[in-house]
Every structure is written in structure tokens, then in C-alpha cells.
Amino acid sequence: MCGRFIQSTHADQLAKRFNLLAMPDLTPRYNIAPSQPVLALRMTEPGQREAMSLRWGLIPAWSSEPRTAYSTINARAETVAEKPTYRQAFRQRRCLIPADGFYEWRNVGSRKQPYCIAPVNGRPLAFAGLWDRWERDGQVVESCTILVTQANALIARIHDRMPVILDPKDEAAWLDPTITDPAVLKPLLAPCPVEWLRVWSVSTAVNTTRHDGPELMAPLQVGLDL
Q1: Fewer CB under 10 Å: which end of the chain, C or N?
Q2: Distance from CA of residue 204 to its chain's centroid?
Q3: All structural domains of the chain with their residue ranges
């Protein structure tokens, strides 16, 4: 799964990395949690990419309320094309969610030890995401979910699931609204290669959502090996 992640790259660098004409002002964030706003990228009508803020936790357009009775922060890649909550967005409203890393927890004795997982090359990753627009009586909520898949061999030592990290060569296809066939899209949702990521143990300060700063990514002086 993916329950906390990092968006810390400067706006100018993100614009260059993801071929964007404009970017909003951004504040580096190191402990993004469910229900908070996240930066996401989608296609506009003229075929340009745009950056926007979406609430993390997808609310389908057909929902009677601006919430769900179950968690929608993650959607399973294996079933996303069939699940009523996600299937329309999967065909028509896909997005990229830039990330400089994410956190996962592993049971160590009687407690859970957090680990930071980040790109080896230091460049922002792109999670595969879906977005939707809920609107009733003048109230509008645009929201998103992060797709998750089976963990690769590195992440499997911590957790059995991981976010779908798209190959940069597949990002354009993922955003392309003319591609609607699940048979074309689902092969893009495989676990990323182990060589893309590095993992290290971090402080349990990340467990508290009010903590937010680069110190959360600092390796423990005495690391807990996987």
C-alpha cells in the first residue's frame, strides 16, 4: 500500500521533469497523509499537461456524499478496471502523482519500524493515479487515489504491496485520454525494477502527521537492516 509519501522537488525542476508549461507555488512536504491535498498532473482538453491540487482519497462522481465508507487512498492494480469506484476513472481520468519517496512500516518485535523508500537517481518518481470530480449543490471536490501493486523483491522485505511507479516512457500513455482499453493500460502497472529504489530506516517521528520536514528522511544512526 501507500499511506505516506513525499513531494519535495522544486516547482521549476518538476516542470522540466514532467514537461509542464506552468506550475503553482509549492511548499516541500515530507509526510503527506490521507485526506490531505496532493500535487497531481493530468491532461487538459488542448492536450497539455496541467498541475493541480487533489484531495487524497478518491470520491467517485456518483457518490451521494463527499466521502466513502471505505478507504480509497489506494486502488489495487489487479482489480481497478472492474471495481465500480474506480473503473470509469481508470478509463477516462488518469493522472500522475509526483513523489520523491514514500514510507512503509515493518514489524520489528512488538513495534513497527518506518522505512523511507526513494529513487536511487534522486529524480522525482511518478505514481500512477486516478482522479475524479464530485459535485453537488455547488460543492466541488476533486480527489485522487494511488494505484498499488504487488511489491518487488526489495519492498517485499517490508510489505507485500507498493505504489505503481511508472516507467517514464509510459507516462504519456498513462495520461492519454484516448487510450481507454484496460488491456493496453494494465501492463503498465507492474512493480518497478528493484534497481530504481533505495531503502533505509528512519525515525518513528514520521508516525505523527503533524511532523513535516526533511529530518523525517534522515537515516537512523543505528540502522535496522532489512
Answers
A1: C
A2: 21
A3: 5-217
With cell 500500500, the residue in question is: 1
Q: Is the pTM of this model over 0.85?
A: yes
Q: Pick the catalytic residue: 95, 104, 142, 171? A: 104
Kind and range of the H or E run holding 118: strand 111-119
Per the annotation, the verdict on 116 as an active-site residue is no
pLDDT of residue 24: 86
Q: Tell me whether residue 65 is one of the annotated catalytic residues.
A: no
Other beta carbons less than 10 A from residue 141's beta carbon: 18
CATH number of 5-217: 3.90.1680.10
Query: How far is the C-alpha of 78 from the C-alpha of 90, rounded, in Å?
Result: 12
Q: In the prediction, which pLDDT does 69 show?
A: 84
Phi, psi for residue 80 in degrees, rounded to 5: -60, -30
**DSSP structure string for 25-42:** ----EEEE-TTSEEEEEE
Q: What is the mean pLDDT of each run of 10 residues along the chain (226 residues)?
A: 94 94 91 97 88 97 91 97 96 97 93 96 97 95 98 96 98 95 96 97 96 96 66
Handedness of CA 196, 201, 205, 208 (dihedral sign): positive
Spatial distance between the Cα atoms of 138 and 151, rounded to a whole number of angstroms: 41
Three-state DSSP at 195 gives helix
Environment class of 148 (CB within 10 Å of its CB; exposed 0-12, middle 13-18, buried 19+) = buried
